[in-house]
Specification:
Rossmann fold; 2 domains; 7-stranded mixed beta sheet; about 20% strand; binds NADPH dihydro-nicotinamide-adenine-dinucleotide phosphate
Length: about 325
């Protein structure tokens, strides 16, 4: 490492680095990273590093692999990715605001990510450049199955939101064979754009839009699965995005949001009504499991990743 390097001799997975440190990045081992803006709050480094520490016992070739976080402004994403490839980074996770704007910077995009129009996982190609994947849909399907006993195939799903997370969720529901998908959003112009984008993927017309303020409750079966992909509930004091009083007793509720404070307003309200409900921590962990599988070719220890995420957030332990 050069004497002018602004980073310590051994980079720390606890630090949030930037392009200045990346310019001087020198590590013997393989580096992985999450890129976001902001990124300081990310629990991905403890989650992935806990898994890597365990995997290294069976896979000596993973010795020296470590996962870091980088705060990268949107306009610096292109040089950041070029430098990371040059400095031997094998994999990258992308979070807000990079998941969509990265698309034109990639050399390859897998079919699922292309359909979702968003990428959260990059794999360095040996011949140069990056291949993009989207593991958020996998994370959603896994947490629905494990936390709420829901199989998307044949399910009736009510999806709240029309942003990036909702788009990934809608594609996953359609690809996995949901029976019907109602999508509600506050801004109706964004909802209309979203429905137009989904139309080519929905030849059998399973998708129906609605105004979040006027949910067509009467059309929904008793065992509907509600997925919140709005950001309402993220900030302290936010209300639940929806009145759970309108749901039948078999409704299951997944809120993509998770919080250090514990249950989100939607999860708390659903549980108070006696409904099965889960927050977005399982989705976060399972998207990470799939990313690490893509980078290593091995099966990561999901429970270890969940334990590390709970510890980092100060939440009680729970099953992955
Ligand atoms: P976007 O900014 O792309 O979309 C935000 C959505 O929330 C829009 O549909 C927006 O509606 C809606 N919204 C925002 N404020 C309100 C409000 N006051 N009332 C009603 N609707 C509102 O965000 P993303 O799609 O990227 O993320 C959505 C959420 O999902 C975030 O909270 C994020 O943390 C979470 N997420 C969780 C993941 C996990 O692994 N657990 C993975 C990815 C995302 P409008 O169009 O009207 O503005």
């Amino acid at each position: 490492m050069s004497s002018s390097s602004p980073i310590a001799a051994t980079p720390s997975p606890l630090e949030a680095y930037g392009l200045a440190e990346l310019a001087h990045w020198e590590r013997a081992g393989v580096s992985l990273a999450v890129l976001g803006h902001p990124v300081a709050h990310s629990v991905s480094p403890p989650m992935h590093n806990a898994a890597l520490a365990e995997m290294q016992a069976q896979r000596p070739d993973l010795a020296g692999w470590s996962y870091f976080k980088f705060d990268v402004e949107p306009e610096r994403l292109k040089p950041a990715l070029r430098w990371m490839h040059e400095r031997g980074f094998r994999g990258v996770n992308l979070t807000v605001p990079h998941k969509v704007q990265v698309l034109p910077l990639l050399d390859e995009i897998d079919d699922e990510a292309r359909a979702m129009g968003a990428v959260n996982t990059l794999l360095a190609r040996p011949e140069g450049g990056w291949r993009g994947h989207n593991t958020d849909g996998y994370g959603l399907a896994q947490t629905l199955r494990r936390d709420l006993n829901v199989e998307l195939k044949g399910a009736a799903v009510v999806l709240l939101g029309a942003g990036g997370a909702a788009r990934g969720a809608a594609i996953q529901c359609l690809r996995d064979g949901c029976a019907a998908l109602w999508i509600g959003n506050r801004s109706l112009d964004k909802l209309d754009d979203f429905l137009v984008q989904l139309a080519p993927l929905d030849p059998d017309e399973r998708v129906h839009g609605f105004d979040l303020a006027r949910p067509p409750v009467d059309e929904w079966p008793a065992d509907v699965v509600v997925v919140n992909a709005t950001s309402l509930g993220l900030k302290p004091g936010d209300p639940a995005p929806f009145d759970v009083g309108m749901f039948g007793s078999e409704t299951r509720v997944l809120d993509m949001i998770y919080r250090r404070e514990g249950a989100t307003p939607l999860v708390a309200a659903a549980r108070a009504r006696g409904l099965q409900a889960a927050d977005g921590l399982g989705m976060l962990v399972w998207q990470g499991v799939r990313s690490l599988e893509i980078w290593t070719g091995a099966t990561p220890p999901a429970q270890t990743m969940m334990d590390a995420a709970c510890r980092a957030l100060g939440l009680p332990p729970r099953h992955a």
